[in-house]
Specification:
Helices cover about 25% and strands about 35% of the residues. The protein is of the alpha+beta class. The protein has a five-stranded mixed β-sheet with strand order 1-5-4-3-2. The relative contact order is 0.24.
């Protein structure tokens, strides 16, 4: 099992993207649980992407449009750093 480490940016953008939407919060919680157990779980569709802020990192799906940007901690690969959350496109997009 991996330890999830939330960055300030992730937490801030989470509020903007997910907010108090109960359905999205439930989907995010499920995604984070799967990510902690197995970052390569097929339903997460995890793959490397080029991001606007972080360069080449991992992306996992929350919904059809919402993505989590993350990477392994460079010192301990049992920690996942949650860097950002946003859309595949639109106002809060996280891809180049």
């Amino acid at each position: 099992m991996f330890l999830l480490n939330f960055t300030v940016t992730f937490s801030s953008h989470r509020e903007k993207v997910v907010g108090t939407n109960k359905v999205l919060n439930k989907q995010l919680k499920t995604t984070l649980q799967k990510l902690a157990l197995n970052p390569k779980h097929p339903s997460l569709h995890s793959h490397k992407v080029d991001t606007l802020t972080y360069g080449s990192r991992w992306s996992s799906s929350v919904t059809g449009d919402i993505r989590i940007i993350w990477d392994y901690d460079s010192e301990n690969r049992l920690i996942i750093l949650l860097l950002d959350i946003g859309g595949h496109s639109g106002t809060h997009k996280v891809y180049k």
